[in-house]
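Re: [ENG-882] Designed sequences occasionally contain unexpected residues at chain ends

Forwarding the minimal case from QA. Structure tokens:
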């Protein structure tokens, strides 16, 4: 018989390498509409001359790893159209991760993530109702503390396999 602990993927070496768990403190749905500047490439203009940007901005506290516990992270999530490509003939990441960003919110980390446009409405609905946590997997690939984001997930609760790693509840600040 296989024990429950042997089924725990979190016991594998390297399972947490480059992984951050963020507890969502607040979020906002941003919308910007304005005329495009002459510097914006034509292919990025909406209907020929409009700059139209939708994004989700999240401010959260890191739960894990312990060395960064309670530090602030700012996360931007931008939708992309179905013609964007990933893999061999496209992007090799689903976002970027930056250490030591220290902006006006006093954050220690920032991330900029890509979300399929079709997932935008359900994501907004879940953010407003049940999602409380994000896991972000990174690979540092730049000496200036920039990393590639290889995956991210949202959840309403911490999975039991991650409870010890995530630690106890953070105090409200």
């Amino acid at each position: 018989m296989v024990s429950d602990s042997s089924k725990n993927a979190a016991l594998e070496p390297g399972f947490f390498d480059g992984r951050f768990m963020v507890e969502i403190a607040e979020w906002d749905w941003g919308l910007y509409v304005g005329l495009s500047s002459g510097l914006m490439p034509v292919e990025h203009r909406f209907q020929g001359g409009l700059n139209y940007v939708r994004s989700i901005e999240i401010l959260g506290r890191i739960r894990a790893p312990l060395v960064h516990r309670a530090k602030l992270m700012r996360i931007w999530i931008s939708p992309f159209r179905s013609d964007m490509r990933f893999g061999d003939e496209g992007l090799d990441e689903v976002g970027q991760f930056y250490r030591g960003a220290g902006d006006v919110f006093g954050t220690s980390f920032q991330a900029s993530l890509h979300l399929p446009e079709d997932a935008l409405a359900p994501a907004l609905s879940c953010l407003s109702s049940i999602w409380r946590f994000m896991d972000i997997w990174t690979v540092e690939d730049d000496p200036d503390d920039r990393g590639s984001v290889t995956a991210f997930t949202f959840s309403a609760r911490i999975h039991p396999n991650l409870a010890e790693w995530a630690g106890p509840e953070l105090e409200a600040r």
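QA comment: On inspection the terminal residues look reasonable. Residues 17-27+55-163 form one domain. Proposing we downgrade this to a documentation issue.
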